[in-house]
Amino acid sequence: MSISADEKLKRLVDYRSHIKQGGGDKRIEEQHARGKLTARERLALLFDEGSFEELNLFAQHRTTNFGLDRMEFPSDGVITGFGKVNGRKVYAYAQDFTVAGGAAGEIHEKKIAILLDLAAKSRAPVIGIHDSGGARIQEGALSLSGYGEIFYRNTLLSGLVPQIAVIAGPCAGGAAYSPVIMDFVFMVDGISRMFVTGPENLKTVTGEVITAEELGGARVHAEKSGVCHFLAENEEECFKSLKKLISYLPAHNAEKPPHNLPEKFDFAPAPELNELVPSDSYSPYDMKIAIDAICDKDSFYEILPHYAKNVIIGLARINGFVTGIVANQPNENKGYLNGDASCKATRFIRFCNCFNIPLLHLVDVPGFVPGIKEEHGGILRHGAKLLFSLSAATVPKITVILRKAYGGTFLAMGSKAMGSDRVIAWHTAEISVLDAEAAVRILYRKELKEAEDQEQKFRELVAEYKRTFSNPYSAAGSLLVDDIIEPAQTRKHISLSLEAFINKEEVRPKKKHGNIPL
Questions:
Q1: Contact, 488 vs 269, CB < 8 A?
Q2: What is the DSSP string of 258-273?
Q3: How many structural domains does the chain have?
């Protein structure tokens, strides 16, 4: 007896509805009891209402070992598709923990690989929502190979389209490498876990005892490892923050970022900047005051705010121009650059260069951190990364020197010699090989030793050195600084520079890529 069209349609509707229930009501309740949203609830938070188009809904695993032939995994535990986020096309996948704990097998991973291929062809950003117990061990090497297919595509897409990872549950073993290859990682306090080896395996192999939260929780990666760029208190905050990030990014590397230029630029002075920098070279102040005064209101979006706090990085708009900001923070260890801060700034500079985002350096730095720990920890290698990335960047580069710019960090924070298009100094700038005190001790060792009043002689020589060298006028006279400005007018000078350089093109010799000192 033939089946009617109405019956076939009903079967389709029922089957689709069944698949969309994932692991079923009980598993969904368990997911909620853990304080977690389901994969479909997360996609609903991310995408504009009604815009999500799912791909490969009916995918099924094909493994028969270990009784899997008697098990159904709806959509094979991952939802993939595309839609609009604030009106802009985005591709996304979300692992479904209610289906076999989100374990990734061959078809699961192929679905993600297919999505990444489509994003590459379509030149649109990718968002991966990770919530998985790891590889589906019943599928053996197939599940491992599938991870490799994803890593390979993450690498091909790197610098082509933005890639953003959300860790919304466990993400362990080989699976954890895909998010870290991507451009940005979001984690949610209390529910996110990411590590190469979990606590149980660690106890067995090394004897170390630690909880999952202590080993790979969101705060650990936000504060200690630097893997987590954005830490959210809950999933709603996480996706709201993610959508804000997307608002600063172009869809792909051949597109400019979404500048939002006003009809008339706002050049209102910020008189508070005239009093921001203390007269003493090493007295602290908060660089974020300068950032807020320079940027459009509430537009600064800080990245990695809990890690290597001696350098600040983030995206902002300045009179509508999307701009990447790299700034020293005198409130943290006097603004010295260490290995972690150098790596933090390097990665961000390279991202901005990939996606045509102009760079603004705000400089107040006494040098790279001295000491045995940093030397043995590779400060030369990490500092070289920063120099390399800045030199390699061809986007518009603007530098403002607020106070200290000493030694190698003067170069690493955006000097003319490193390719900056415009270098501006405040009248408080101190540009020198060394700070005045250190320079005097080296240059005038004999005079100080022979002086009747060594302390008085030292103060006189320091004052003379500052008048002669530690000021912006000597550097400006040698064309190392383009202008010396009143701090209150900084926003105006930066805005006009961004407007002037926004269509900048810089051709470099053709090659595969440079060999950054990793």
A1: yes
A2: -----SS------GGG
A3: 3
